[in-house]
Q: What sequence folds into this?
């Protein structure tokens, strides 16, 4: 009976460790120009613990620099004091953090933001040995026309993008339609800035 109890405790311990890990998540993992509204990078530790680390000291979010071929630290969180350090200043960004998590939100991401992001946790094990663990995830950049076409279709279905007041056409009792048109100098593998025109026509 005692042996079964010990096996049960061991199983619970293993399951607990299996559900605890260092995680980096990016949403979305593919960005497109003028289409992707925001890029969200989340660096976190599930269940507030990581295998091999008995003491978690810090959590750092970094991004790969292709020029120097190294990771540049963006944000670091002191897990003991919850003190946050920002090493890179973004023109537009939103940062949220808490107990063992950092979230960076970049509105209207560009090709420059399509990089490899790394979440790094530093701490010590039961012997006092310093240990560093990390997880990485890549954000890709896409310039094909598929995403643009789908966005145009979505805009066509949304009546809020182009509307008019009934009071302005009180004396007109004819059917009306809303048309969307797109114009661009170049639509190839790489899409140039596209201008959408919303026009109202009375028949």
A:
């Amino acid at each position: 009976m005692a042996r079964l109890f010990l096996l049960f405790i061991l199983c619970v311990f293993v399951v607990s460790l299996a559900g605890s890990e260092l995680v980096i998540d990016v949403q979305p993992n593919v960005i497109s120009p003028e289409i992707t509204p925001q890029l969200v990078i989340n660096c976190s530790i599930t269940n507030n613990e990581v295998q091999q680390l008995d003491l978690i000291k810090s959590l750092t979010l970094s991004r790969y620099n292709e020029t120097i071929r190294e990771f540049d630290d963006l944000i670091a969180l002191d897990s003991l004091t919850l003190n946050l350090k920002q090493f890179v200043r973004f023109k537009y960004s939103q940062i949220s953090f808490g107990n063992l998590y950092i979230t960076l939100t970049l509105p209207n991401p560009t090709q420059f933001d399509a990089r490899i992001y790394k979440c790094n946790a530093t701490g010590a094990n039961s012997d006092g040995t310093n240990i560093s663990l990390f997880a990485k995830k890549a954000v890709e950049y896409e310039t094909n026309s598929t995403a643009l076409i789908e966005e145009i279709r979505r805009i066509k279905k949304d009546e809020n993008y182009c509307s008019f007041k009934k009071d302005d056409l009180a004396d007109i009792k004819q059917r009306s339609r809303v048309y969307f048109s797109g114009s661009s100098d170049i639509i190839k593998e790489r899409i140039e800035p596209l201008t959408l025109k919303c026009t109202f026509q009375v028949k």
Notes: The longest strand covers residues 55-65. The two ends are 86 Å apart (CA to CA).
